[in-house]
Prior knowledge:
The protein is mainly α. 68% of the residues lie in helices and 0% in strands.
Amino acid sequence: MESKHDIYYIEKVKNGQTQYYSYIVEKYKDIVFSIALKVLKNREDAEEMAQESFIKAFKSLHTFKGKAKFSTWLYRITYNNCISEVRKRKIHFASTDDIEIKDDDSDFNLDGLPEENREKYIKAALEKLPEDEYTLVLLYYFEDQSIEEISKVTRISESNAKVKLFRARKKLYTILNDMLKEEIYTIL
């Protein structure tokens, strides 16, 4: 969740106190890396792209007007950088080791999953989603981005984002359901 402190640090950086940018990097490094990793499928490339995204955001910080959340602006930079890199290299999309699954995430009904395996199942299911659906789920459920913000990051319409998110949830449910069935058959 974005705090009012982001604007404070952004203003400090804009006024020449660049050391405050480390707060922004520290706060957003995990999600920026996770987006890059999913798109690029390679840890080293994702680390490099995350770093490049923060550098690009730093150099472009003067253009940030605050009309959207800073996180939305940063995720858009990251996503666009990664898509450009994929197009350059003509590679395919990716993996999810660094997502943090919270037990208190009430948007996912996880009651049917054994608690000790919940995170493992969700990460495995997320990895099976196509990159666009993965990004939508990641931003909506794990980064608390609104549909409007997701629309800005991915450059798809809000109605299309809603439809794709709905389909991604259905697909995620089906994947999790199939995984649990397999687990039961293995036990029996």
